[in-house]
Amino acid sequence: MSSIRLEIEKAMGLKFPERNGEVVVRFEESVEIPQPAETLMRGLYRDPDRVRQGFKLLHQETGSIIEILMPKRSRLREWADSLPERPKEAESFLRETAEQLLLKEQRLVQAERDLVGQLQESGLEDVYPIPLSAFGICNYRDPSVKLFLKPLGRFAELNEINPETLRQAVRVHFLFLLLLVAGTDLDGQVYARGSDDKVIHWLTSVYTMRYLRNQSTEMSHCYQEWVNAWGGKLPNQSLLNDRECEKTRAAMVFWRRQPNISWDECWRIMCQFERPMSTNSMVFD
């Protein structure tokens, strides 16, 4: 974690606050399941007990048909080799089993139709959007982060992505977030900006995307899936080029030092020194 922390400090141009040479922020990974993650942990089923009961009923109805078909099949094979001694008994047997099968089939079709309806009602649309607090929380006043590993693993399972790759990407996001809200500037001063969560997470995503594009395509993909899941705003790809890096940092430093000025205004001020065509390239909306 220390090597990643140093890379993140270099990428953002800030440093985590230290006391006696030790970083004073806390980064914890927990196996607990927070309340906002309950829907995610439940999975894709709106009512899993009802769906489970539907499968149980369908299994029972299928079994009841098999219980009729198996002895009937055996009897038919026997009669195919040697005709029944009493045709009327064979006729009665066939009529009786046909009626039984018709009744059982009707019940089977109804059970199957009900189960299909329940499955159609289940899906990711019941899970999204997932609260960000289901995956991790950041305390701005007492700089700390707590990641929840089980919800991250569940999200990876539902979306068929590598859980460890996802965890690595999310760690990077929260480290950038922690540095943005609690880091020290080059002058050694701490400029904490703990308001305007949307801008904070968007700026965090800008730096995270820039960092991850140099790691792996898979990690970038996992990160984008995760951000979309909690309704985050991903930066436009044009904002990730190296030319914008220094201007972004200048605007970010100015924004952190001026709590009464919005990000949009900070960016417009920075753009006064740029060509007019770039004025709105990173205005947050």
Please describe the structure with a list of short key phrases separated by commas or semicolons.
mainly alpha; 2 domains; 10 helices; 5 strands; 6% strand
In brief:
The chain has helices at residues 2-12, 38-42, 48-81, 87-120, 149-159, 163-182, 197-212, 217-229, 245-257, 263-271; strands at residues 18-19, 22-23, 26-30, 136-139, 144-148. The protein is mainly α. It has two domains: 2-42 and 134-278, no CATH class; 48-122.
Strand content: 5-15%
Topology, number of strands = 5
Average pLDDT, rounded to a whole number, is 85
How much helical structure, as a percent, in the residues?
A: 55-70%
How many domain units? 2
Rg from C-alpha positions? Answer: 31 Å
- As laid out across the biggest beta sheet, the strand order is 3-5-4
C-alpha geometry:
rod-shaped
Q: What is the N-to-C succession of helices and strands?
A: HEEEHHHEEHHHHHH
Major beta sheet summary? 3 strands, mixed
Describe this structure as you would to a colleague.
The chain is mainly α and 285 residues long. The chain has two domains: 2-42 and 134-278, no CATH class; 48-122. The protein is 58% helix and 6% strand. The chain contains ten helices and five strands. The protein has helices at 2-12, 38-42, 48-81, 87-120, 149-159, 163-182, 197-212, 217-229, 245-257, 263-271; strands spanning 18-19, 22-23, 26-30, 136-139, 144-148. The strands form two sheets. Strands 3-5-4 form a three-stranded mixed β-sheet. The protein has a two-stranded antiparallel ribbon with strand order 1-2. Strand 1 (18-19) and strand 2 (22-23) form a beta hairpin. The longest helix is centred in the first third of the chain and has 34 residues, at 48-81. 22% of the residues are buried.
